[in-house]
Every structure is written in structure tokens, then in C-alpha cells.
Amino acid sequence: MRSVVRHRLGRFGFGADYNPEQWPESVWDEDMRLMKDAGVTMVSVGIFSWAVVEPAPGEYDFGWLDRIMDRLAAAGIGACLATMTASPPPWLAHRHPETLPRRADGTVLSVGSRQHYCPSSPAYREHAAKLVEAVATRYADHPALAMWHVGNEYGCHVPECFCDTSAAAFRTWLADRHGDVDALNDAWSTTFWSQRYSDFAEVGPPRVAPSFPNPAHVVDYKRFSSTALLECYLAEKEILRRVTPDVPVTTNFVGAWHRIDVAQWAPHLDVVSYDSYPDPHDPDTVIQAAFTYDQMRALHGRPWLLLEQAPSAVNWRTRNAAKSPGEMRLWSYQAVARGADAVMYFQWRQSRGGAEKFHSAMVPHAGPDTRAYRETAALGAELARLEPLLGSEVDARVALVMDWASGWALQGSALPAGDLSLEETNFAHYRALWHAGVMVDVVSPTADLSRYRLVVVPNLYSVDIEVAQRLVAYVRDGGHLVMSFFSGIVDSDQRVHLGGYPGAFRELLGLTVEEFWPLPDGGTVALGSGGTGTVWSEWVTPGTAEVLDTFTDGALAGRPAMTRNSFGAGVATYLGTRPDRDTMAAVLRRALSDAGAGPVLSEKPDGVEAVQRGQWLFLLNHNDHEVDVPLPAGTVDALTGAPVGDRAPLDARGVLVAHLPG
Amino acid sequence: MRSVVRHRLGRFGFGADYNPEQWPESVWDEDMRLMKDAGVTMVSVGIFSWAVVEPAPGEYDFGWLDRIMDRLAAAGIGACLATMTASPPPWLAHRHPETLPRRADGTVLSVGSRQHYCPSSPAYREHAAKLVEAVATRYADHPALAMWHVGNEYGCHVPECFCDTSAAAFRTWLADRHGDVDALNDAWSTTFWSQRYSDFAEVGPPRVAPSFPNPAHVVDYKRFSSTALLECYLAEKEILRRVTPDVPVTTNFVGAWHRIDVAQWAPHLDVVSYDSYPDPHDPDTVIQAAFTYDQMRALHGRPWLLLEQAPSAVNWRTRNAAKSPGEMRLWSYQAVARGADAVMYFQWRQSRGGAEKFHSAMVPHAGPDTRAYRETAALGAELARLEPLLGSEVDARVALVMDWASGWALQGSALPAGDLSLEETNFAHYRALWHAGVMVDVVSPTADLSRYRLVVVPNLYSVDIEVAQRLVAYVRDGGHLVMSFFSGIVDSDQRVHLGGYPGAFRELLGLTVEEFWPLPDGGTVALGSGGTGTVWSEWVTPGTAEVLDTFTDGALAGRPAMTRNSFGAGVATYLGTRPDRDTMAAVLRRALSDAGAGPVLSEKPDGVEAVQRGQWLFLLNHNDHEVDVPLPAGTVDALTGAPVGDRAPLDARGVLVAHLPG
Amino acid sequence: MRSVVRHRLGRFGFGADYNPEQWPESVWDEDMRLMKDAGVTMVSVGIFSWAVVEPAPGEYDFGWLDRIMDRLAAAGIGACLATMTASPPPWLAHRHPETLPRRADGTVLSVGSRQHYCPSSPAYREHAAKLVEAVATRYADHPALAMWHVGNEYGCHVPECFCDTSAAAFRTWLADRHGDVDALNDAWSTTFWSQRYSDFAEVGPPRVAPSFPNPAHVVDYKRFSSTALLECYLAEKEILRRVTPDVPVTTNFVGAWHRIDVAQWAPHLDVVSYDSYPDPHDPDTVIQAAFTYDQMRALHGRPWLLLEQAPSAVNWRTRNAAKSPGEMRLWSYQAVARGADAVMYFQWRQSRGGAEKFHSAMVPHAGPDTRAYRETAALGAELARLEPLLGSEVDARVALVMDWASGWALQGSALPAGDLSLEETNFAHYRALWHAGVMVDVVSPTADLSRYRLVVVPNLYSVDIEVAQRLVAYVRDGGHLVMSFFSGIVDSDQRVHLGGYPGAFRELLGLTVEEFWPLPDGGTVALGSGGTGTVWSEWVTPGTAEVLDTFTDGALAGRPAMTRNSFGAGVATYLGTRPDRDTMAAVLRRALSDAGAGPVLSEKPDGVEAVQRGQWLFLLNHNDHEVDVPLPAGTVDALTGAPVGDRAPLDARGVLVAHLPG
């Protein structure tokens, strides 16, 4: 199952979330006609249909869906059919108030929006399972069925529930993870602050407390919560696999948000799916999007599905920017370039009512005679010409290591700097790599690193020694590594690796950090190289490491800010501060050069993204003005089949998809 | 009952909230003497006296109030007697904890401040009714009784209660509004996000939920809540009307705050009353005050009562500014100019204890030998000379349309711009009208518009087609209209008028809006006219409309920003952005000129407000320096009876009340 | 018991919080060795050991503590032994959920951090008492026992609990304070807003309410809460006194935070203890620290104990700065100079896990070969040479009056300026005194003032007349007093002293304030002296007072801003605004000069703190650069015994402890 889309659809996944139950049947015929005109190959159906399909417990009404599925089949459009369990009908909470989730302060989250269920609730799980069985059985052999869409954006709004049902499930999970209560006490360091438990029965969720919570408790609760949601997914998947063994199963991640651990989930998806909502008002947004695409692709090392994006504006920010003409096409190709085999939208037809009526759609409130419809339909036609691309892969030689549990731990309290975030620190490094034009995989620390020439570790705060040893071995065997401060500090139970920081990487880096010296909010520190450090400084004592740069003002003046250590056959560079953008770019360019990890194109204008996927080269001009880009001889425009000369002109927001000479 | 005050008192209402129960009887004699010296004609009595008058359920103690009423009668001072139900005594919640209101997150609001009752609570309503019956019966024939003051500032602190009692009452209200549950599902668009209800029993208040609530649910709950409070008012009014058929009944609005729908309430008041608290630290405050006075006056199209204002500072802002010498007089005349037949204060004698002890009073902590007492007493004497003015009306030829439910809907979530507020958008337009010096009525969209030469519609987001047609007919019949963006978008159940925005006004405006393009927070867009647009831009496709101004930068460059459409016998101008102050002023000046709606005075210095009420002209100098103002020949100073020359000199913060020649 | 430390230890208290239960016994030997090397004389043991010592109700396990106490005794190190009641074990809340505290909004504070108990809970108090009895009995005669440490940082996280148990205790407290319910109604001014209670049973905590709470209710609840915590302390102290009549008892204050009224508590401590955590990122931090030390010393007028400070960084700010080399020593001497007989740290050995693992320690994660250990050990050695200093006192001739209840009242709502804080206003005055180089006692308004030449009253908002009369008498008898605005306004039940502000001090100051005119946020007002006023202005009418300075812009232009009144044999200066720093400095320098209250040194460089304690002079150079300071002839370096010349050179962050000539 290397490429789900090539295998099942044979075409790019192209389409949208389709909610025909919101419209009279009289609209459906126009829908089918417009979908065909737009080149739609697949739609996501039924995501929020539970209340319509099961208006009362056990009473199912599939009539309308039967008719939709038949029409889709007739139109040659695949259905990514939802299990419909993302949002229970009001009758569930009315009959089972205990299914409603609770916040850490005890607030009950009511019906009236969506995702109002406790993931550990037996009543929710039972009703969901019955529904999935009914849906799977009814449509198992339907010719429109292309894929299963389980739940929806798991954990987006309720990543953690703090109710008593969850508390009981947590205790079971803890017994499974830690064994007995003594082991729990040891793992959680409960001799601190008189927190020692004498029985699992005394443990609850990390609810609101008078002061800082136990960090191990907090992170374990996030692990448990991710697992509780995964259990919901797996229970549904098991039914689907049994009833329809050959139909691929997915669920759509909203990845970079830290709700669930996608690295834990990915092995259980047949294909990785992702919802991507860059903000046109944010100039960094395309780099952030690239990061998440590189993360999604690397989860399986195979093509993934862009299951949702906006044709133009979203509706949930304070000021919801529209996408300028060309922007949607440009950003769609960014996803394809970075491994997507599907380009789908939320939503097909813009809702008349409800909370997402101002989210853009392929068919807006104003109807199909609109740029939203024209631009999406034009893209659908283009993608049909790019089918040879399906299933092809990206060959990245640089890895950025990101660990979900480290991110959770950094969200905690009582840290040297309480405002570190994994997103920000990852982005500070990734941005430099993006500008350098190299292909990057965003991987977990347990990934196989041997294929990479350079591994960047922005902030692996929490890591067990056996995992850390994988990074150590990577360098010993000849790898190049760049690591930033506050990595290798605690184990997975938030216990410090003793003997001097960073306990897990002292030998690798050839240094010891004695104390952290975070800078004041907004403060900077001068560097000997002429740049500045931000956020952080620290008291580094080099051992075998050579000093690359020093602090030159403040109490740390003269002490090392960056170092470089030859270790085994490899090299480990260390950053004891967060350098400004230019300095970070210089540091990573040097590391890339030392490691022999080159860019896709050796020369390109600023603001142009060049990505290679298989034998295809994507040039994406994020500028508001024209540019032209030098290309290798023999390159062919993949959309027109025409040869491209030695310089490709690109319009403002223009795209070139080219086939490289063999 | 054209003018309640002229009819009942025959004099300006002038006085204050009077809380003699806070003071020993020894103080009361001084109170009467000072009130007479200050020209007091009416005081509000008993607003917070429930706990004193009914110390235990059913045990009434009216002795002190009898003595106060007798003294007032003896002094020739009218009593605006409260029904005393604004704040129940502690014993009510102690005996009936379910009377306490709850927030959307379930938090119970306790006793200890005021207004701690659930408006739907039967126990509250029963105890309130018994009290009102007792008060009404006791004082029905008392010579001091001038008016009934029901409750106090309804909804000020608890505009909505989310308790189970309220939930049950809401279900009854919903059945009444929508009929059956299918109609509710249709109105609320519940096919969205699996929100379909199978029974009214499943519906509750829009309590805290995991994500965005259903917008129709939210707005219906605000409608219900305004109605629940109105029912409290009406239950009391019914008793009063039965016992004292001839005594006018009012309650004091705190209007611009969006708590209750004053347009819904106004028909049930015999006279509109309003509490006004401009902030001396805010340079825009006098324009905002003018807006609310124009709104209050237009509710009945008759004089209204300024039932509360501060003699100097209030106590509830972070920094509570005192009114500078002359400022209180100036602002009082602003209210009279805009239709007030009463000028009253909170409060008579500054409390010694409690939460409002630092709110200024006619008799401050320092006693009557103070500027607060001297300035208020001087005003009392002046007002006595202006009695001919009582009952006279303001003849406005410009209307600004404001709809409560649109304002509620804009407070919601998941909108193109989440930070639009009806106050701000109304004010952006009203400010330009104020500077233009025209008289404005602030009216609801169902008002009779035929009398107006220009109608301004800043943001009528939510409007049913039949209501929208009133505006369309107004223009077709020759009216001039200026409408700003995001009007006519949804119906009263928050369902989009399909086919292109603004669905309810496309034909009137001669254009279609395809997409909204809100600007980034703080961002602007250049206009062809040389001005700038703020907050918003959009993709306008003109039909019959001519383009008045265009966007000149960004992705919308060259597209229309403002248009003008001849429609029937009238003209409709449309603003697709919020222009900067100067541009807004120019646009509205042109519209006023086209419509033939002229200012009160054709020429006046900046910062001088000129208002005409009946045959009286008010000149209000809001500047810190002297000015002089050209006047029509034959104008007479209404306070001195002396003729005013062709130029009236005004001191800093000075006022001229003049009688215009016949 | 003039000096607990001299009496019990005979040496400086020097050491740290010691939590050996967090470590395997194999570490303990190293601990003892390092402690001796570092000159440790005392450690705080057992503060958070309840859960370890009593793993189940009534089952005690003291084995590990016996062994620690024996080792300490063997090493000649005293134990400041905790009663262990600061944080109950999880089993207590599991068995008695009602012991968990509640916030004002009803949120339950759960186990998982620390201090999760309702101070009024009988179950908590009973379990605590049994534990204290067991601990006291077991170690009564242990040779290591030096002092009792009751609880820990009382009220730090839960200064007030709003549960039903607390409500019942509050009612009892109210009956005791006020007598009957009529007296309560009178004290609380409950005729306001219909708040009259007919029975104590109707009174609860000031829980979340619809609007502003009753200020008297709020302040009484803070008084009650401070008392409830004090009862916990006293119950434990009583047991300790009975079992070990000769062992001094203390608890550590976290004073300037306004949680508990330390002036109420101090008489019940045998020695005052304080935890001090200045922020190295804050340039004002050393002056703020000096303030708290002067407050702690003045509580008993005797030496106090610095029971906790950080060797370097803390862990609970957003960015936790490390102390630069020399800074910890410098700041430690600041405490000693201002009366500390102990210099102790949190913590001995940096925790491996839990919420404080990033708080610095004498023995960091990196071990003893670190500057943290070296710098603390060096200080230990120095202090041993300063034993003659123990027990000596500071002779301050200036007092700054601070009243806890006034501070609580200022935290309330519905004030002329809602953002006044006692910390800020005290600091504005204290800073000027610090720069002037005089010794100051921070005292309560009931202190004996006769010894002071100048008394500064920054903001004594709430004061009963009989207390105010003490200040009046002080001036009448020849004292000099400086008082700032918003003093003497209300009594201890938040009732205004009528007749003009400041009611309690009108005659003393020779003026009347008619109205407060707070400035806009960030606004200033010009003064005739050339300076500016901030925060506040007011309408002052001088009587006998002479005008020192006037407002020169705004509506108060020409009116008094500062005055000076000769009263009896003394002088009272009044500030009707908060002058800018330079003006405040000038005003207080003049007052000091008039009062004859001179500085420790007549001449010293900026940034050098000169403090005299007994016959010892401390020079503390807070600058980053060297200075030298002129000294009296005959001064001897107390650490070296060498004479100091007429100018003492001080390194950057350097310290001189000198003995002055007899």
C-alpha cells in the first residue's frame, strides 16, 4: 500500500467535505454537475451526520445517504466516508450526561458546538461502535466507497477530559504503564511536596491545584489522553477492517497543535491525512506550512493526503484573510510538492447556517460564478494532468528531530523559561533550512537516522538515555548533528539526568552546562561573531568541544555561546543561545556544507521555494512580483509538456511543475 | 401622555436617587432643607430597600418610608417610588438557593452585591410580586407619589442566566417562537455539526462548549433572556397599573450596553428613562452620550428622563475622573437639548459605606459647602426658568438604523472579523454626523422612515427580508440611504441570504459582494480618493452602481471600495470599507447635501454642539476655551430673557439656551 | 529570647532546606561531608515529609528521619525541624474530599501540587495535630533539634478558602467580632444595595457575585482567613510548646505578598523568619528586598532569620535569571546588614524531579564542583568570622507606616482609582528613603512611634480614629510626619470618616480634600516646583496648612498639590499627588533634614548601600563597577581584622563589613 491514492483512485484526490444533508435534494443535481466540471474525484461525506442518520438511539435513517452515495458512484466520484462519530447527537448527552467532557477546573463542556464527548466514556464508545457497525455494513460493497474517514480532527477541541470517568481510565492506564504504586511514586518523584500516593485510587487527573502541578503527572496525563482518543479510533478501525478488509482507513490530523501524538497514531493509519490552514495575513505562514507537510510526509515516508484546506478565507481567526488570486493554487502545489497525493477542501458548498457559514467553499454563497469556484476547478483540471506524479517520494537528506512529549513538557510550568515552545524553537531552525533550500524530514527521535547527512535537534528537552543513544550513535558513525540548548535535560518521567546538563548528551557535545541563564523577556546578548543571542544563555564549560562563538556582554562575557565537537566519525555542533535569524542561517549553512547536504537548486531568487519530488521539480514563487529561475538543461513543463529553457519565468504567485531530465 | 413630566410634575424632573434608610433620621431634616434649596422636584426612593422593608418573608416594615414620603409631600417633592425588586434580600437566596443566577460555565453568582436573581425563577417572581402589591397598595394614594420606578437597570449585571430554571423557561419560549422541534432544527440549521434535536427536552442554554456555539442558539438565548427580564418588569407593571391606573411607570435603561433590547421594552414604558455616565477622561465621550440620547428620545419620539447621571466622578472605572467645573452643567444641558425632561443624579447624599461610597453625590462626604452641591443647586435654579421647554420635541431629518439582534449576532464567534462591534461601527458613522451638526434619530429598522431625508445603516448584519424591504421601499420612494459593509447578510435566525452578499440589499445597492477581505488588525488599505480604509475590505462587483472610490493597493487594487446606486426615486450609497475619519466625514457630508438634510447651524466653531429642540436652540461649548457663535437675528437668551446679538460668546464649557425667533 | 540564633546555635544560621527523603541513603554521607565543608550550621528538615512519614492515617514511619537527625547531630548541625503539615498526603483528600479548598467561583483546588487544604477544615486540623504530636514527642530530646518550623509559607497559594466549611467558621468569627447581626449590618453598611442580613446564617464568603462586593465583607473575609491560618499555626505551636517548652518556634513569612497579616502573626513567633526571592532581572529588586527586611526586623525589633533565598535562579518566574558571580554574597550581606541572624537557602541539593527541580541549590544537578557550591561555601566560611555581630540591632530613626488591612482594602473594587496598590505606593516612598541612605523601620500604625524623628505614611487608607490619633499625637508631641493622599479615608469597616477627606487627619494636616481627581492611566500633571505628579490629583482646600507646591495645568491649576502644616510641636507634610522620582526624593530629603534624621554615611557613591547594624557598618556595592567610599577614621575590616583607610575600595558587587570605632 505504498500509495493509497494511486491504488484506490488512480487519480489525485481532489474534492471537498460534502454535506448534502444541509441542503434540499433539489440542490444535489447541481452539486454533481459542478463536481464533474471541477474535476472532483473524491468527497468526504457524513462527518457530522450522526444526528441525522440516527435521530434516536438505534433508529437509523440512511435513505438520503444511500441516494448521495449512488449519485457519487454514478458520477465516478469516490466517497471518503466518515464514521460520523466526531460529534454525538444531543440525545446522547441528554440520556448520558456523564458523556460530556470536563475541563481541569471542573467546568462541564455542553452540547451546542461539536466534539462534546469524554473519550473514555463507555456510553459514547458503545453508541459510536454501533453506529460504525451500521455504516460499515450498509456501505461495505458500495461502488462509491473509496476510503474510511474515522472521527474528525481528534483532540482538536477536547484533547484532555478531566471527569471522573477519565480519572478511572487514567488509573488503569497508570497501572499498565508503571506497574505498582511504588513505581509510580518513583517515576513521578512524589517524595517532592508530600505527593506520595499510597494507592492508585488516590490519583486523579491534574486538575486545578493551588500551585504548580507535578510535571510528570501532567505529561503522563497528556500521554493517557492521546491514548484514550487513539482507543476510540482503533475501536472504530477494528470494525471497519473486519467488515471491509480492503478499504483504507484514515483520520485527519491537525498536527502541529500538540493535541495528540501523531507519531503514536501514524502506524495505525493506512494513509496519513492532514488539514492545513495557513493564514494569508502571516508572512511566515508558507514556511510553517512546509514544516507540517514535511512532518506529515515523514510519518510514513510515503505520500499523504491534504484532506482539508480553505479555498479562500477561514472563519475562526479574529480577522479572516481571503487568499489572493493565485494563492490557493500556489499553496496547493506546495503540498503536492512536499508529498501530497490529494488536494481537498473544506468545504464543497458554503453552509447557509451554523458556525462555519463564513468559511470559504468551492461553491460560495454567491454560487459557482465566482473566483473561488473558477480557481478550484482550474486546479482540478491541472492536477488531472499530473497523475504520473502520484506515489512518488521526496528524498530528504536533512532531518529535524521533534518529540511530542518534549513539546508537552515544555508547555508546563516551573521551567527555567516558562515561555519556550517547541513550535517556536522548531520554527527558528526550520526557517533557516527552508531558506537554504534543502529538503527536510521532520522525524521523531526514534526514527532511522542513517539516511540523513545532517540531523537538527532544536529542543529535545525530555529524552530517555536509550533514545538519546540513537543520536549519539548517529554521530559516532559519521553523522553531523546540530543541537540547541535545553535538550537532553530530563527523562520521559521528567527526572533530570544528573551530573551536569545536558545529561543525555554531555559526552556527545564535549561540554557541560552548569546553569541556565535565560535572558529577560525581549532581551538579547551580544556574540563574538557579531550576531546576537535571544531568549537564552547559559554557563557552558567546554570539554573536548571547540568554541565557535562566545557571549561578549553581561556576566557570561567571554564564555562559550556555540561549540563544535568531533565525536567518533562525526561532528556535533551546539547552540547555547537562540541566535538571531542571520546568525542561525549562517550556522546552519555551515553545518549543511560540512555535512554535504545540498539544496534542491544551487541558485534561486529570494521567496522562491524549490522542491523536488521524485523526478519532478516544483518552483513556487511566493513573491508579489515576477522572477525567473535558472534551471538544469532538459527540464520539461509537466503541465504543458513543453521544454523549459535555462531560465524559467514565474509570475507573481506563479508555479512551475517541471519534469527533470532522467 | 405626550410628556409625562409636564403632566405629572409640571416642572423639570430634578433630583437624585435618595436612600434615607442609609442614614439616621436626624439627617432627614437637613435633606429636606437642602433639597428645597437646590430646587429638587423629584427623588427616586426605595430602589434598594427590599431588605429593609421586608426583613423576613412577608414581614413588612414601612414605617421609615411612610415618614419619608410624608416629608417629601410636605416639601412639594415628587417620589419616583421604586418597586424595590432590583436586589433581593439575603434571606431569599438562603431559603431558595435556586434563585441565584448561573454563568455559562456553571458558576453560581452569590449574594453580596446586587441583582443576584435568575429572571426566570418562580420564587423570585412570587416574592417580588407580593412586595410590589404591598408597596403599591400602601402608597397608591400618597400625595408624594409621582411615578413608579420598576426594578433598576434591568440586565445590567445578569443579562443572561444559564441555570436549569432558565433552561426550562427557554424551552417553553422556543416552543412558542418556533412551534415544533423540526421548525427549530430548520431555524437553527442543526444539520450542521450533528446538532439536530429530536425533542425540545434536549435543548439547553448555550453553556460553555468545546468549540464555537451555534449562532442562532446564541442569539435566540439573548432574545429569550431579554424577554425573561421583560416578563419580570411586566408582572410588576400589571400590579401597579391595576392599583394605580393613573401613575406613570418607568424603568431606567442603561442602553448602549446591549444587555436588553430596549426597542422591545420601550412600548411597555410610559416614559423612557436612561442612566448616563460619560467618562471625563475620554475625549469622545460627549459624542457617545449624544448618540444614546438620540436613541432614547427616538424610542418614543417624545421627551425622556435622564434618571441618573453623576454630579462629578463615578466609582466603577479604573481611574474615575471628576467632572471639571462647568462640565456637569454642560452635559446636563446636552441631555435636555436632546429631549430630556428630567435631569437627575445618582445620588443625593454620598453613602458612608458600601460599594458606591466613592460615587459622587449632590451632597458629598464633605457636606453641602462644596462645589458639587453648589453646581447642582445652581442648575436646579436654572432649570426652573426653562419650564416652557417641557414636552417640546426634536425634529430630526436623519436616521441612524440600529438593530439590537444584529449587535448580539456581531458579539458572536466565527465571523469574517471577530472584533466588529455594533457600538464601534455605529459610532464611526454617528461621529461624522455629530460633527456635521445635523439632528439624528437612532431608530430600529422597523421604524417609520418616511420622515427622514437621509437614513444611515452602519451595520445591519442580521435582517429578515420583509424588514429589509422597508429600507428598499424607503429608497424606492425617494429616500437617500448610506449603508456600510456586512449589512443584510443573514436573517434573524442567522441563515445567510444566498446568491451573493448582501443578499437582502443587492438590488438596492446595485452590486454583489463575492467575498469578504477583512484587513489585518491595525492594517489599512489605500483608497483612490486619497483616504484610507480600515478594518475591512471586500470583493465588490458593481451592477447598476457607479463606483465612488476604489481600493488602490493590495490584491483588491482597482476594485470598488464605495459605490452609489440610483434606485427608484432615491439613492443608495455603499461603503465596502470603514473609511478613516476625514473620508467618512466627507462621504456623509456629501450624502447629507444630496439629501437636503442640513445642520442646525450652517456655521459654528469646532467643538461646539448646536442642538434645536422645539423653538429652543442649545449651544454647548465643549472646548476648554472661549468661542463665539454666529446666530440668527432675534434670538433671545432663554435663561435671562435678554436678546442675543448676532454672535453669542460662550465661555469655556459654556452653554447658551436660546429661544429662536418664531 | 532577644536573639534566638545566638541563644540556640551560637553561630549564624547557615544552611538550607534539606530533603534527604528525595535521595537514596547513599547520598546522605556526601551530604554531611559537604555541609561541614560549607560551614552549614542548620538545615530545615521535613517540610514536605508528611506523605513519607505517615503513608497511611496513623501509620508513622520515622526511621529515615531518625537516621538523618542522628547524622545531623553527629555533624554538629542543628535541625530546624518542620511540623510537616504544609502539604497533606493524597490520602487525606481521598478520604476527606471536603478538606480541599475552593476558590471564590467554587472551583475545587485538587491534590497534585501543595497547600491543598482548607484552613478551617476540622479533618485537616485533627490529622495535623496528631502528626505534630508524634513528631514533637519523637524528637523532643534529640540533640539535633534547634528550632521548630511550623507549616510553611502560610497562605502562599491558598490565602482564602471559599468552601462551606470556611463559611461556617466565618459566621462564628463574625459573631465573635461583631456581636449580633444588627451590629454586623451596621459595620458592613448593609442598608446599601439591599444587603441587610436577618441572621448570621445568611452570610457566606464573598463568593463571585454579579457586581462589586461589599468592601467590608471582603476585608473581613481576609481578616478571618488570616486568622483561620493563624489558628492552624497556633494549634501546632501549642503542642510544641507543651512538649518542648524551650525550643523556639517559627514559621517562614513571604511577607510583602499580602496573603496573611504578619503584624497579627508576629507576636506568636519566637523569631521572625522570612523567605526572600529578589529578581536579578529587576533593577529595583535590591530596594524592594531592603523594604521587606526592614519590615521583618521591625516586627520584633530584633534579629530575624533569612530562612530561604536562592543560591542562584528560581524556577517560578517566566524567565528565571541566575545570580551573577558575587550577587548572592552581596544580597546575603544585605539581609545580615538589615538584621538577619541566619542566611539560609532553598535548597540544599537540587531535586531530580518534581516542580522545583530547576530551582537552584547549594549542590546543583552538576554536583559540588560548581560556582553555586563554591560561592555558598565561601560565604559560610565568612559568616563564621562574623559571630560577634549576632544579636546586634539596627537603630532606625525613620518609620514607614504600613497597614495590612489598608492594603487589602486597596485591592478591592469601586475605588477612586482601582489600580492603587500598597506595594507600589510604599515603594515610591521607600525608594526615596533608600537613596537618601537613612535607616527605616517599616511599622504598623499601632507601633510606638516616639523613637522616630520622621514618620512616613504613604497610604493609610483604612484607619480607625483611635489609631489615627496615635499619629496625631506623635506630631503634636513634636514629631515630623509625611503623609500621602488617600490616607485616613475610611474606618476599619470601610465606612468613610465624614465631613471632608481625610477625615481622620484633617486637623493634623490643616486642610480638607473635597474630591479626588485621579489622573488617566499614564497621565501626569505639572507642578509649580517644576516636577510632575502621577496617578492622582485632588481638590485640596488648605486651612492652617501652607502650600508647598501647586498643580499648574488641568482643571486644578493653581490649587495645592503639597502642603505643610505646623501642628502642636511637630510638622505634617501632605502630598496630594504622587510626585515623580526626583520630586519625591527632594520632598523626603527636606523632611529628613527638617526632622534631623541623617543618613548612615553623609557621602557615598550612587548604587552603594550603607547600613549600620550595632557597631558594624555594611557597604554594599550594587554597581557593575568598582567604587571607593570615604569612611570614618578607625574603621576595621570585620572579616580580616585589618584597619580600613579613609577610603574603602569596593569591587563591582563587592561588600565591606566593617567595625566602627567605639
From TrEMBL, chains A, B, C:
Keyword list, A-Z: Glycosidase, Hydrolase, Metal-binding, Zinc
Pfam families, per database record: Glyco_hydro_42, Glyco_hydro_42C, Glyco_hydro_42M
GO MF annotations in UniProt: beta-galactosidase activity; metal ion binding
Limits of the Beta-galactosidase trimerisation domain: 396-595
Cellular component aspect of the GO annotation: beta-galactosidase complex
Binding positions for Zn(2+) per the UniProt entry: 118, 161, 163
Entry's EC annotation: 3.2.1.23
Reactions this protein catalyses: Hydrolysis of terminal non-reducing beta-D-galactose residues in beta-D-galactosides
Domain Beta-galactosidase C-terminal: 607-658
Biological processes annotated in GO: galactose metabolic process
Root EC class: hydrolase
InterPro entries: Beta_galactosidase_C, Beta_galactosidase_Trimer, Class_I_gatase-like, GH, Glyco_hydro_42, Glyco_hydro_42_N, Glyco_hydro_b
Active-site annotation: 153 (proton donor), 308 (nucleophile)
Positions contributing to substrate binding: 114, 152, 316
Sequence ranges assigned to domain Glycoside hydrolase family 42 N-terminal in this UniProt record: 17-385
Similarity comment text for this entry: Belongs to the glycosyl hydrolase 42 family.
PANTHER family reported for this sequence: BETA-GALACTOSIDASE GANA
Name of the protein this chain belongs to: Beta-galactosidase
Organism: Amycolatopsis taiwanensis
